[in-house]
Write a structure and sequence with these properties.
InterPro entries: ABC_transp_permease (IPR001851), LivM-like (IPR043428)
CATH class: Mainly Alpha
Subcellular location: Cell membrane
Strand order of the largest sheet: 1-2
Largest sheet: 2 strands, antiparallel
Structural class: mainly alpha
Strand content: under 5%
Shape: globular
Radius of gyration: 20 Å
GO molecular function: branched-chain amino acid transmembrane transporter activity
Keywords: Cell membrane, Membrane, Transmembrane, Transmembrane helix
Protein name: Leucine/isoleucine/valine transporter permease subunit
Helix content: over 70%
CATH topology: ABC transporter involved in vitamin B12 uptake, BtuC
Order of helices and strands: HHHHHEHHHHEHHHH
Length: 327
Amino acid sequence: MSRETLFNAALLLGLLLVPIWALLTDEPFTITLATRAVILALAAAGLNIALGIGGLVSLGHAVFFGIGGYAMGILAHHAQGFTPLMEWPFVIEGTKSMPVIWLLAIVVSALAALVIGLLSLRTTGAYFIMITLAFGQMFYYFAISWSAYGGEDGMSIYVRNDFPGLNTLAPIQFYGLCLALLVVVLVFSARLRRAPFGLSLNAARQVPARLEAVGLDPMRLKLVAFVISGAITGLAGALFADLNRFVSPTMFSWQFSGEIMVLVILGGVGRLFGPVAGAVTFVALEHVLGGLTEFWHIYLGLILLGVVLFARGGITGLIAGREASHD
């Protein structure tokens, strides 16, 4: 068994045991921190499909995170009875059901990724980065101007949505739900990268001309990957809104897009558990160093600089040693 596999297993075991320990010692805040790490890992896992396999450096992935969050927030807002969802005298059934909200968040985020991808993938390199950034800023300022749903102040959600058979208000149960979704996405990502689509997408990143020579369209492959990536990140946004019971335009900000990318780079670009390692490290640093100084990002920057210069495979690649060289 490789060192990377052992590290991944230890990381997953830690995600299982730490919340249980927190529950037994009556430390609900630790469970909340772990839930935040898992949701951020889910968002980063979505980006890792586009970035790690497809080589698409997107500075606009917060768009899909924000769309997922607002999809959840808007449905919850109307389910709370403030205003009818439509002019009809009823609220659509199921607007407080998590599976319904997840489906809406995934579909809307995927459609947004399709439109953005069709326009952005006409360019490459720095131009692609700037177009995705421009879309992020467009959605950010639209959310600020959307006064019906809080505008710049955001929108509070007073109740957490429901999941059949679970008490989602119990921190440990909501955490278990988020962790289960992360595991499903990681299994999906593992199968995707080994499937013919994943192998073709990797080839499109490295040698697109050869891919065209065998009759495959690199742009179409990258577009599909971008849509899948956006859908997963949108799901993470819906969970994040449910965790905080609040949505705001900052979910669309370019700073948050950069934060998601930092998680992937920190953990290891293209590594299956890279987003998980990056998210856990980020949340741990935020909690520990944030309690010491408000300028804790300085230390994060130094760590990220060290990773980029001396551990190109991220934390996961550093643990794996020479096994990281194939990236």
